[in-house]
Amino acid sequence: MADALEAARTQVKGAFERASRLADSREPRRLGDFEGELWTALLELGRALVALFLLRQTERPRPAEYLHDGRRYALVSQRRVLALGTRFGKVDFSRQVGRAEDGGLSDLPVDRELGLCAGFSVGVVLAVTRLCAQLAFGQARGTFKIFHEWAPSPRATLRMVDAAGKEARPFLEAQPAPQGDGEVLVAEVDARGAPHITPREHQRRCLPRRKLRGTTKRARLRARRKAALRPRRAKGDKSKNGKSAVVGVLYTLRRTPNGYEGPINKRLYATFESHQALFIWLRREAIKRGYGVKRCLFLADGSEHIWRLQREHLPLVEPCLDWYHVIEKVWDAGQCFHPEGSTGLHEWVARQAKRLREGGLRAVIGELAEALRRIPRKGPGNKRRRSRLQKTLNHFFLHRHRMHYAAFRADDLDIGSGAVEGAVRNLVAVRLDGPGMRWGRDRAERVLHLRCVLLNGLWDDFAHDVASRGLKLLPKPEPARPYAAKPRRAA
Question: Domain total for the chain?
Answer without folding.
Answer: 2
